[in-house]
Protein: D-3-phosphoglycerate dehydrogenase
Amino acid sequence: MSLNVLLLDNVDPVCAEVFKERNIHADQRPKIELDELKKIIGKYEAIVLRSGTTVDEELLSHAENLRIIGRAGVGVDNIDIPAATSKGVLVMNTPDGNTISTAEHTCGMIIALARNIPQSVDRVKSGGWDRKKFMGTEVHSKTLGIVGLGKIGTEVALRMKQFGMDLLAYDPFTTQDHAKEIGVELVELDDLLGRSDFLTVHTPLTEKTKNMISLDVADKLKPGIRLVNCARGGIYKEEDLVPLIEKGIVAGAALDVYTTEPPTKELYETLKNPSIICTPHLGASTEEAQEKVAVQIASQISDALENKNYKGSLNSKSISLLTNDEVQPYVELAEKLGKVSGQIMPDNANNFSFEYTGICTKYSEVLTDAILKGMLSQYVSESVNLINARHYALERGFKLSETNKSDDKNYNDLITIKLGDSSEYKQISAAVFGPGDYRIVEIDGFGIELRLEGDILMYQNLDKPGMLAAVSSTLAKQDINIGALSLGREGKGSNAITAVIVDRQLNNEELDSIYKLDGVSNVKYISLS
Ligand SMILES: NC(=O)c1ccc[n+]([C@@H]2O[C@H](COP(=O)([O-])OP(=O)(O)OC[C@H]3O[C@@H](n4cnc5c(N)ncnc54)[C@H](O)[C@@H]3O)[C@@H](O)[C@H]2O)c1
Ligand SMILES: O=C(O)CC[C@@H](O)C(=O)O
Structure:
């Protein structure tokens, strides 16, 4: 039977050549209207795209023969993965094909910003000269702050070190060993903001990274800081850039990515500011990167169509697990527990041990993958899934260990995670109580019982009268309702742990009001919503 693949969005032509060598027919349609795409997609077993095509449930409903969606690149924000998974369609990407190109583009932006290259090129081309106006700054001996020390952040660090820059990084999910190896000092975010002459971000856009730089943090920034964003639009609050420049806090900004691409009319107005330089999402636009991702995705898809292997797949284990009713609840439990662990673990932890009891021992491998998926999905750019989570964890230098325990005195089927580094450890256990009912049953040796859902406030307190009243009245004053709560203690009058499910998300000020209460310590806020 002949196999047909549709290549969309200016995917490099080498993609078609690789398919041809594998006897797979490829049609190249760089520009196609959505209506026509809906009419023809039904005859293809696979499609390849970049960021120009959105694959949603509606488009998938026309794709009756589709087996694979391949992204020539990293970001899969334009693909509805849950919809593809429930239709049994594999989604694949090529997470590292454009790392070097994007790192090089970032370094180019840092130098262009320091030396006003784009602005001065414009001036000369329009018949001007103005040498005085374009006085620049050396990057040598200046401090570069890197937020996100993953694949691209690491390559940027290695290159800018050669320019003589001092390097700081903030990344709670990388290890001290990795930072040390590449000559970077790992610091807290506020410290980095206050010490950096240049700031470059290399994280995904998440709830935590969105608007990381805005007028709200103006007083934390080193005056005269220069900002670079070649990651995702929205990490710097776009509408605050001009005010930050006008106040003299930010000396300039270099942007490759935007919240809306192409930018809206208002955003184009912002980009006209002479201290802002910009490129149209060119990080990965080199012949080499496009060729690499095109060859990689064509080989991956060919292998998968021939059932040889599923490298680069983002959802293949999820597809096979969709039909296994026995393991499904434990996979959900493990993923939720991973999410919680990722939010309470000590910064830069690198030791993770997972202990399984009862039925969980039968599926320990996939449950570890699910825990890692839950943990990493909050920090890693490309969609983390059951297939690639372990790879990313090991790539980051995490040390993983798994043990199976024959029984537990209280629970038949239990998962326990211990995580930390040599100085600080956290331990947390959870179990399935019924359909969709997953509960934490122990934290750091304190027995509690709390459903894994919603927004959770957790803290330690002295076991004495009035502690709960103090917290609940502080919450009530801020109109925050408590939905459920659980208490655990070491013994009468000693240390206790309290976990409450609150009815809405808490902001930093609201959390501060709990930190400040006498006798309350170790406050953690966990969002599972
Ligand atoms: N401009 C372009 O054309 C282009 C090309 C490729 C990738 N990208 C983007 O670049 C970014 C980085 O890609 P990558 O391949 O290096 O990803 P990566 O997953 O290898 O690295 C991301 C890093 O960010 C860290 N991180 C996550 N949340 C954080 C937070 N709140 N604070 C600090 N650090 C945090 C992670 O721990 C990880 O180390 C992504 O947003 C990706 O989509 C852009
Ligand atoms: O140019 C592209 O295809 C997008 C590059 C990049 O943002 C990615 O997600 O891989």
